[in-house]
Structure formats: structure tokens, C-alpha cells
Amino acid sequence: MTDLTGPLIGVSFLGGVGGAIALAETPFPRPWADGAEVRTYFRGSRRAARLSALGQTASAVALARFTRTVARRAATRSPALQRAAVAGGAVAAVSLATSAALATTLTLRDVDDDTALRMSRTAFVAGGPVHGVGFGALTAALVLGGSADLPRWVVVTGLASAVCGAGSPLYFLWTPAGWLIPAGRFPGLVVAAVAGPLLASRLATVGSQP
């Protein structure tokens, strides 16, 4: 059976984001928004926020499963790559799930401005820079561990995505570096969608050989 967890990571995440944009009745608060703006969004666009959180949760579950495939393939290259895959995948999945949980909580509880702002910023940090570092490590392990079986453009794109993800915490020092977050995430989702089924199929073939 084809392993579709790689494509599912991006489909669920992007589906949640796209659906949330379509349903939102108020603008999504930017990282620099104040507490009142955060409360306005999560109270006025509850369905949109919950749909986005659902997409994040599904993506996090797919990431956890996908990490197993990447780690198995990376183990054939080196123990260090395998450890990077496991650690990166764990950070990516947990941080994304944390961001989803905080966003959902904001739709369920009527908190004061300071609490709303604190929770929103924590959700951003978890789902943005922290997730970027973990997903970057997983993506690097994916393309380096499977470089012999992947198209060159996938390997190059994956490495570029990993570098951007690793650099995303620079946002805390220099705000324009926030562009590294989507620059790492979206190409990485494409790489996972393309490379995941290829590597899973390769592993199944190797495993079936006597």
C-alpha cells in the first residue's frame, strides 16, 4: 500500500489554512497584534480558527507517522541522520499540535487581553520558528537519507527548505527574518509530498527482498 502520510502533511495543513481564510469574519492577528485584536479574531471567527487548528492537528499526526518512514530510510545512511529525523520530526509534530491546542483554547475560553496575547504569541512561536527548526531537520534527513532515490530538484529544494527552517528563529532578532518561516515550510511540504511515497515504496521493495 502506498504511504500517503507525506502528502497528507501538506494537504491537511493547507486545507485548514485555506478553509480558515474562507470562513474568517475578522482578520487573522499578526504576530505584532495587540490583545484586543487577538480576542476579536478568536471570538468573531471561531469556526475559522477551529478549522485551522484541526488542519494543524491532522498535519501533526501525519508528521509523527511520516517521521517513522524518514527515520527508517535515514538509518540506512547513518545513525546521525536517523537521530536527526526522529528529533526533528518529534519537535515538528509536538510544536504544531501545541499551536493547534492553544488556538482551540482561545475559541473556547473568554480570556482577558493579556492572556489572549500571551497564548497567541506562544502559539505563533510553537507553530512558527520552533516548528520550522524541527521540520527543517526532518526535511534535511529526508533528502540526505534518500538522495540516491530522489530527483535532484527534490534534494536541492529540501536542503534549501531545511536551511530556511533552521534560520527561522532569527525572527526574534530581526523581524524581516520571519519570511524564513514560510520559505522553509512550504517548499518542505512539497518535498514531503513528492519524496514520501517514493521512499516508502523503495523501503517496501527492499523489505520484500529475500
Description of the structure:
With 210 residues, the protein is mainly alpha-helical. Helix content is 80%, strand content 0%. The protein contains seven helices and no strands. Helix 1 (5-23) runs antiparallel to helix 3 and helix 3 runs parallel beside helix 5. It is elongated and about 50 Å long.
Radius of gyration: 18 Å
Poorly predicted residue ranges: 206-210
Q: Which bin fits the share of residues in helices?
A: over 70%
Count of runs of 4 or more consecutive helical residues: 7
- What overall geometry do the principal axes of the alpha carbons give? elongated
Hey, roughly how much beta strand do the residues contain? under 5%
Mean pLDDT across all amino acids: 92
- Intertermini distance: 19 Å
